[in-house]
Amino acid sequence: MIRAITFFFATFSVSCFAQPVKDTTTHLEEVTVRAYFVDEPLLRLTTSAGVVGRGTLEQQSGHSLVPAFNTVPGVRMEERSPGSYRLSLRGSLLRSPFGVRNVKIYLDEIPLTDAGGNTYLNLLDPDGVDRIDVLKGPDGSLFGANSGGVVLIRPEGMGEDNGYNGSLRVNGGSFGLFQEQLSVKFNPSPTYQFGVNQAYQRADGYRENSAMTRATFQTVQRWNYMPTGELRLIALYSDLQYRTPGGLTEAQYAENPRFARPATAAIPGAAEQQAGIINKSLIGGLVHDVQISDKFKHVFSIFGTHTDFSNPFITNYEVRDEYNFGVRTYLDYAAGNPDAFLWRFNAGLEWQQGGTDIANYDNHGGSKGDEQAIDALKSHQHFYFVRLSADVRNRLTMEASLSLNYYRYGYKSDFPISEPLFTDRRFDAEWMPRAALSYMFMPQLSGRLSVSRGYSPPTIAEIRPSDNIVNTALEAETGWNYEAGFRWQTPNRHVFVDGAVFYYRMEDAIIRQLRETGAEFFDNAGGVIQRGVELSAVAWVVEPRRQGVLRGVQVGTNLTLSRFRFGNYRVADDDFTGNNLTGVPGSTVVSSLLIRFPFEISGYVLHNYTAAIPLNDANTVFADPYHLLQAKVKWETALNQRLTLQVFAGGDNLLNQRYSLGNDINAFGGRFFNAAAPRNFYGGVVLRY
């Protein structure tokens, strides 16, 4: 922790609040968050939040969302191999060894998180994302069951730009990286606009058996059929395929980190079995947004997804056919005098239904063999929510919200036993309240307090994990979160500081365990106590301007301190009470620097310090701390009045650290380590119209 604090005060970064330079004004744009249906100033928001804006996304490499997400304190995103994402908000990765769980994610008004609790975040192309708002801590009052937080993604094409524009991006890099992305937007009429994003990405990967390809097509279409009414279509098709090299023991990791998981006397290796993921998904929905009067607004969305999923694994070959559909609707009513007393009321519901047909076969070198188990599962969740907020003289903001959450699933076996009917498992309806306030002590300083309840039922992937056994005894996680924070900015918004402390006590935490074959299963541990501190700061040392050698210098830093401990937690005869929570570093510091030069040249440097990470519940094995240094330089020039050319180049892991960005936790046989790539480089061009 001392080392982390030293780094915090010694280094600076462009934080997630960085905004692109637009003119020579000394007053920068105010950062807003669309957390609760309307854009609100971040300075006055009652919840802890992070904003990954367009400016921050453009400073990244463009082929991964990981560095951008990790600029938000309290957020940890990992990529075990190209295309294999894990995301954690203020919590452990115990539930998310291979994906995203325990976090609710939306694409505009469409949930990416399905009725079974799973989210395929890796389907998105990074250049198809315009903005990411992260709400940290349990916030189910408006967004349904979660105990980690909420991620709100605005897709490319949702901006307010008029006319025709487009861009073509091509880049390549080390380990076979190639990426092409085409984005166009049209306004055929004053009332209709649509955007299309197409992307293709491939990589050979650093390790054996870690190649990846992803082809995506995304469209956002907006029809303003009247001045106060809009109908939106959002659709995404993604064809993602990537290999999974598997974990290595410490000895194997030291000998050659490029190895894929080797075979043993009893179990074949990852390359031999062609272990990997094939995910072909279609996601789409319609959103109707109408301002009925100057006080009254209604939003209704209908959505659906279909996924064709295959996973050749070490011990089996799994095939899943998944579907999901639902509706979300809410009313927004605002009244009062903004300079005296302004109040807002929201009420709505979200309903989802999903189904999954899962079949497991023997895996013969990447080909399906005999059946092992075939099951059908269905999931259903819905919740009702209300929210009341009041603003007193632009100084005091008070909020109270409540949701009632329902969840159930059903299952039946088709092989080796054929069951004619589904067996249902219903969870008790759960209330998720939230109360919060924010107070402006002065025009540039605010403080906030909140208390909220978290609730997260098990996902379908946890109920029926890779051991092919349906676990009906798995209970939902619950807990209470208490939080306090402050925000401060200078009058010209050149300096912004955001801090928070929280205490979250979780009960019935869902944890991942492994059988001797390597197949996983999940169980409920006892309590988990999470105490944390988050602090971010950003400052323009040299304000944006159009003269001088330095046209702008921005520095800042983000610090996360996590004191997460197991409460009463026992597995068989082992007592892990009081141990560090598996998979969570005690501290991280993300620091970077942005410098703008004449001739539209800029440089960006990002440094990520991550402390040691416990890899098993017993805390007998830790991943070493590491320093990850990234940099990017770009130059932009106008070719004519309409065409702009950008040339960029960058590098990752410039210190050539040996580290694992995505360890296997509680790994059987000590196979904890998934080596990340050493020093590597990329470069490319962007042509904008």
In summary, what is this structure?
This protein has 689 residues and is mostly beta strands.
How big is the Rg?
Answer: 24 Å
Q: Which percent range fits the helix content? A: under 10%
* Class per helix and strand makeup: mainly beta
| Beta-strand fraction estimate | over 45%
- At the third CATH level, what is the topology name? Maltoporin, Chain A
Largest sheet: 22 strands, antiparallel, barrel
Mean pLDDT: 91
Number of separate domains: 1
List the quaternary state of the chains: single chain
Number of helices: 6
The CATH architecture can be named as Beta Barrel
What is the H level of CATH, i.e. the homologous superfamily? Answer: TonB-dependent receptor, beta-barrel domain
In one word, what is the shape?
Answer: globular
Distance between the termini: 48 Å
Q: How many E-type strands?
A: 38
> In terms of per-residue confidence, which ranges show pLDDT below 50 for 5 or more consecutive residues?
1-27
CATH class: Mainly Beta
